[in-house]
C-alpha cells in the first residue's frame, strides 16, 4: 500500500521520468530528439498559464499586503533578501573557486572552435543600473503581457494592487474577491497540466541527453563538481539556517517540504514553470499566508536567481584560472556586482545564460571557451533553478513571520 502511494506522488513520478529519459537519450543519441515535442508541449502549457497567473497573483498579493501595516516592511524586506542572498551567493562561488581551482590545468583547445555557439562581445552587453530601472517601467502593459516581459508586468501588478487598497469604501472588495477566484482557477488549471509532467520531463531529458550526451561534461567535471557543492551548501545549509533563525518553520521541515518543487525545478529548469508547485508547497506544507505567497513567490521567480549568481561567479573563476588571469580586487568587485545585477535581471525561464559573458568581460577574462558551457547549459540550469526556487520559498517563509507579527500587534 505504501509503495502504491509513493508511486502516485508526482515528485516520484517526475524523478522516474528523468531517469528513464536520461537512459533513453544516452542509448538513442541524437535520434532521441523525436521525444522533444513531449517536453515542448508541457513547457508551452505551463507558459500559457504562468504569465496571467503572475499578473493576477501579484495584484492580489500586493492588494492584500498593501492594506496592512506591514506592507512596506514586506516589500523592502523581500527586495533586500533577494539582493543580499544573490551577492552572498557570488561571494561563496568566488571563495570556492579560489579554494578548489576548477579551471587549473584545463585545456579547452579542442573545444574552443567547436562551433557549438558563436560567442561575441555583443552578447555581453549588460544595461546599466539606470537603464535597468527604466526598462522595468512599461509604456504599454498589454504589450508587456503579450511580449512576456515579466519585470514590467511585476511593476504594473504591484502598482495596481496597491492602488486597489486606496479605493474608498467597499468598491474594491468585489474586484479582490474576483482576483482570488481567478487565482484559484489558474491553480486548478495548472494542477491539470501537472498530470502530464512526467511525460513532459521524459521528453526534455531524452532530448537533452541525446543531443549533448555526457562526454562534454568530462572536460568541465571539476567545475561541475564545485558548482554542485556550492549549490548544496547554499540550498541545504544557508537557506534552511536562515529559515530556522528568522521564521517559525524548522530547517528540517523546510528541507522536507521543498523536495517536490525542487524536483520540478530540476526537471523543467524554469522558476516560472515551478511557480505553481512552489506556491502550493508554501501555502499547504509551510503554512505561509496566501497574501505573502502570492506576492513573494512570483516576484522571486523573476528576480531571485542565487543559483545563477553562483554559476556566474564560478565560471568567471574557472576561465580566469584556465587562462592564467590574475584577478585584482577591482575584478572581483566587478564579478560580484555584475553577477548580482545579472542574476536579478534575468527572467525565470530556461535557456542559455548569455549574461555570463557580461561577467567575464567586466573582469577582463577571455570568453573563447564558452561554447562548451552553453552546450551544457541545460544541465547547469536544472541545478541552479532548484536553488533559485528554494531561495524564493525561504524568503516567503521568513517574510510571513513578520506579516503575522505585525497583524497580531
List keywords for this structure.
409 residues; single chain; Proton glutamate symport protein; globular; mainly alpha
Summed up:
76% of the residues lie in helices and 0% in strands. It is mainly α. About 5% of the residues have low confidence.
Helix and strand layout, with pairings?
Elements: H1 2-7, H2 10-28, H3 36-66, H4 71-100, H5 129-135, H6 141-147, H7 150-165, H8 173-194, H9 197-212, H10 215-219, H11 221-246, H12 251-257, H13 259-268, H14 271-285, H15 290-303, H16 306-322, H17 329-345, H18 355-362, H19 370-375, H20 377-408
What's the CATH architecture name? Orthogonal Bundle
Query: How many domains?
Result: 1
Radius of gyration (CA) equals 21 Å
Return the CATH topology.
Proton glutamate symport protein
What is the SS-derived class? mainly alpha
Work out the number of β strands: 0
> What ranges have pLDDT less than 50 throughout 5 or more consecutive residues?
110-125, 347-352
Residue share in helix: over 70%
Number of helices: 20
> What series of H and E elements makes up the topology?
HHHHHHHHHHHHHHHHHHHH
